[in-house]
Amino acid sequence: MSSQTTTGTLLVCCPDRKGLVAALSGLLYNHGANILQAQQHTDTTEKIFFQRIHFDLAELDISRSELDDLLRIECGRYEMRWRISYSDPPKRIAIFVSKFEHCFYDLLLRHRLGELPCELALVISNHPDLESGAAQFGVPYHVFPITKQNKAEQEKKEIELLQRENIDLIVMARYMQVLSDDFLATFPDRIINIHHSFLPAFIGAKPYHQAYERGVKLIGATAHYATSDLDEGPIISQKVVPCSHRDTIKDLVRKGRDVERVALAEAVRWSLEDRIIVHGRRTTVF
Amino acid sequence: MSSQTTTGTLLVCCPDRKGLVAALSGLLYNHGANILQAQQHTDTTEKIFFQRIHFDLAELDISRSELDDLLRIECGRYEMRWRISYSDPPKRIAIFVSKFEHCFYDLLLRHRLGELPCELALVISNHPDLESGAAQFGVPYHVFPITKQNKAEQEKKEIELLQRENIDLIVMARYMQVLSDDFLATFPDRIINIHHSFLPAFIGAKPYHQAYERGVKLIGATAHYATSDLDEGPIISQKVVPCSHRDTIKDLVRKGRDVERVALAEAVRWSLEDRIIVHGRRTTVF
Amino acid sequence: MSSQTTTGTLLVCCPDRKGLVAALSGLLYNHGANILQAQQHTDTTEKIFFQRIHFDLAELDISRSELDDLLRIECGRYEMRWRISYSDPPKRIAIFVSKFEHCFYDLLLRHRLGELPCELALVISNHPDLESGAAQFGVPYHVFPITKQNKAEQEKKEIELLQRENIDLIVMARYMQVLSDDFLATFPDRIINIHHSFLPAFIGAKPYHQAYERGVKLIGATAHYATSDLDEGPIISQKVVPCSHRDTIKDLVRKGRDVERVALAEAVRWSLEDRIIVHGRRTTVF
Amino acid sequence: MSSQTTTGTLLVCCPDRKGLVAALSGLLYNHGANILQAQQHTDTTEKIFFQRIHFDLAELDISRSELDDLLRIECGRYEMRWRISYSDPPKRIAIFVSKFEHCFYDLLLRHRLGELPCELALVISNHPDLESGAAQFGVPYHVFPITKQNKAEQEKKEIELLQRENIDLIVMARYMQVLSDDFLATFPDRIINIHHSFLPAFIGAKPYHQAYERGVKLIGATAHYATSDLDEGPIISQKVVPCSHRDTIKDLVRKGRDVERVALAEAVRWSLEDRIIVHGRRTTVF
After folding, report:
1. Which of chain B's termini has less CB crowding within 10 Å, N or C?
2. CB-based contact (8 Å) between C200 and chain D?
3. CATH number of the domain where residue B62 is located
4. What letter would DSSP give residue A178?
5. Which domain holds residue B29?
6. C204 and C268, same structural domain?
7. CA pair distance B210, B203, nearest whole angstrom
């Protein structure tokens, strides 16, 4: 999957019509791109075309900005929503945390192990608790305590920091604050959250308590894009694990941590690898 | 697990206190029972004691009715809810179906393969469609067409039939009628239903359509005891299967059939093996 | 996924080079094909290119034989192994069975439910036991008893029957005879077998007994193409299910049936949908 | 599951006969123990009885050594192998590591999160690489470089250290040295290893490479007790994760890390909670 050479990834989404695959693959081929992976999916119900093309730039005979121009023209002809990104420079991510450390450490470790192709630019938290953890991994840690009174102001500072640091992706690793609509609108489809239930079951607070009360036999976790409808954003990854009458709420929390970690890390990796197209409330994950 | 000799299974549930395990195992031992399997669980939050004892009757030195008397006295001392049942004669089950055949055939086949220790006494349906299927497996098929007008009357006839046939367990294998509260109250904790979602997500009609709209990445099925709160009964078994943007609603229905079958069959087998204790909205499955 | 219109599916595999995606999508587009699904994968280690293109024929402006000619020329230029097939007429499959009925009935039912896009042309068995089952579903049943003495002769008759009936795919649904190398060579990559373990663990006879002895905590099933190296053919699908010390060999057999059914059905469906490319000992499943 | 009060756990294993459950539960009851969890399993094939009793000591009316004496007498009568342990003082574990850090950090974090009821007494490694990681969590780290020449001598020092530190359980968290038979014999059923395949598939070196070559569709991990037969010890926990043609060996290694972590942590926790009885090549996990 990974390549040492520089690669580009093109994601497109548009009303379905003939010739779309040929148009884009032709354009890339004509300029020396070598396609490494391509997937095309047509939603035959809604007549929507989705495509991901992952290609090698080694012999590309035009500049990135020239390719941009060509794509703008070609994609314009087909009313495509499109986005191109490159493996170099790597994307920059920011992790938002509060006090729970399991997802946080998991991301730090995966990054160090080379699982997440990105720069871990910074951590933002409303608490100082995890600062030493960030320090161990050499990641700057910024504390923005949040109160009802200062929330708007603090978010403004956070946005400034994120923009100044050219953050491509924000990961809410069990961050226990609801982001405002303004904040969310600033980073559309660029904020990933982990919810500790298999959504849409157990929306809202204390999902493990809800799961215990309901007596379910599976508990889960859902990684999704954050939107202004809480717990309603497009789902990226879901994982479950069996549970039983033997599990107390504390046990459910423990089991849940394992699936939270895996679902969140998967979603982050897929996002960094430009595998996800959001369309309405749903995601296409190539 | 299974034994060719006759076995008994005792299920008990009561407020926790000391000596419960010793009391029942002592009583059984003193009368020649050989315990094959025993599990005891204490819900330390609610202080409830649950136990299942599965034992060999070969050298029992008293009659079943004498054992009943002794248990009544002993369990009375501890305010136990209790139930004893025997492998012989086998339990008798009735399957309720409409037009969907996948769970229906699955149960017929599993019974023939020896997976379900019971007599398949009869099938009840509101449609004649699956009659020939039942005939192939030699199971009597009774049609009770249901309309708004005749529902109460038809249910009364169904209850008469079920009671006359000494039915121990009713299995709703995608039966597309809502049973009345009166019907449900006649067979408490003895009616198993399969719902085609991982409850409590997608309660109500067309769960696969709901799942598609929400864009989930897992679909599931839930076997539960039927209660007057639709889709709210105590959950026995839940299964899920991954899905993706490639799955149309038709694909979700197809994938869902696989987990519906397995979840329902598991719940039925566990019930026949007397592994389930219902307490409030939750089940203990030993 | 499925479409009511006629569709074609092209599978190709060749040494990787630039322009492959553009070449084939261009050819199809130029002749009016509408691509519904396309996936392209490059094995960067071995430098092999794999592609599946699934397209709508409704506005194809040339005949199938003309398309064949064009593909032969184009694919020849790139040293491609290629295969095209059409949704109409449907593929014809033959099921081989012995006495175990769970996979057999499962395939019959899935076919009736519309899960398997094919004609269920015939059943071949070395025993008469399942004849009535086939009759219930209206499928011709041919008995070829096999002994050491008559095996070569019987296989010859089977091959004649399969060829006369234009069988596209042979499914060994727990068929308990080893097919000869001659038989296998007659239908390369067209015979699917189900082995009742997660290969390569527990190769050979009695895998559930082996699994019990080894004390594993998962048992599995593997659907693979049959080759002359027994249990060594390219793997298509694998499924597992948890087990424990509570499971006797009989329980493992029961649990295993569930995963055998699902793995085999999945492999058959994927084959019928032309999703599988075999390359060496491995499969690419789009 | 967890209790703030001190608890004891009794594990027994013996030839099956009547009265075993009554004998032990009676003995405990008579001296004031409150049974919190009990499971009893009879292997009906081999006629072996297994039991775990987890009880509250709060009102025990005899000392631990007196209970020991009583159990010695009672268990002696039935030829029981038995072991009793207490939640206080907590068990002490030693982690063996080399250079791979994923299982190592996972155990450190789970311990800090309260998932592993033990003292993390020390780390032993043949390399200094992970020393700073251990330091971050405040765990002493001992380096014993191993060469062919010094292996016996170094192992002797390791054993001395482990015995001096009263280590109850040794966890090989991807430790890349084979322990000698002498070492293993010193800690029978007290060394847990993680193998990066679903054993018995892919025994020996480079299992992910083997899995890639074989083209499997699931990869796994197996936590087992280490014995002198490499990769043949009694299995405690196995986990798998789906893979496909898209996964390079590097991807398999990445995916495998997730299941290695979960399988190993589960095995360690079960061992610390005294849930495991080894009998021959198999484990009973209550």
Report:
1. N
2. yes
3. 3.30.70.260
4. P
5. 7-86
6. yes
7. 9
CA distance B241 to B239: 7
Do A18 and A151 fall within a single domain? no
Distance between CA atoms of residues A246 and A63, nearest Å: 61
Task: Determine the Cα–Cα distance for residues B260 and A54; give it in Å rounded to an integer.
Answer: 38
Question: Is the Cβ of D35 closer than 8 Å to some Cβ of chain B?
Answer: yes
Active site residues of C: 231
Asked whether the predicted pLDDT for residue B125 surpasses 80, the reply is: yes
**Selection from C233, C225, C1, C189 nearest residue C81 by Cα:** C189
Pairwise CB contact (< 8 Å): A250 & D1: yes
**What is the nearest CA distance from D149 to chain C, expressed in angstroms?**
35
Contact A2 D136 (CB under 8 A): no
Residue D89 sits at the chain C interface (C-beta within 8 Å): no
Q: Answer yes or no: do C50 and C17 share one domain.
A: yes
Given CB atoms, is D244 within the 8 Å cutoff of chain B? no
- Catalytic site residue B16? no
Of D2, D115, D254, which has the smallest distance from its Cβ to A115's Cβ?
A: D254
Please indicate if any CB of chain D lies within 8 Å of the CB of B244.
no
pTM above the 0.90 mark? Answer: yes
- Catalytic residue, from B231, B247, B251, B274: name it: B231
For residue D109, the distance in angstroms to the closest alpha carbon of chain A comes to 8
Taking residues C126-152, what's their average pLDDT? 96
Neighbours of chain A (3+ CB pairs under 8 A): B, C, D
Displacement of CA C250 from its chain's centroid (Å): 28
D48 touches chain B (CB under 8 A): no
Quote the CA–CA distance of B107 and B189 in Å, as a whole number.
Answer: 20
Measured N-to-C along each axis, helices A207-214 and A249-272 cross at an angle, to the nearest 10 degrees, of 130
Grouped pLDDT means (10 residues each) for chain D, 286 residues: 76 93 90 93 93 95 96 93 96 98 97 97 98 95 97 98 98 96 96 96 94 97 94 96 96 97 98 97 97
Do residues D155 and D53 both lie within one domain?
A: no
DSSP D32-80: T-EEEEEEEEEETTTTEEEEEEEEE-TT--S-HHHHHHHHHHHHHHTT-
Task: Looking at the structure, tell me whether residues B272 and B170 fall in a common domain.
Answer: yes
Q: Among C245, C248, C252, C259, which would you mutate to test the D interface (most chain D Cβ atoms within 10 Å of its Cβ)?
A: C245
Task: Please choose, from the candidates A42, C40, A271, the residue with its C-alpha nearest in 3D space to the C-alpha of residue D245.
Answer: C40
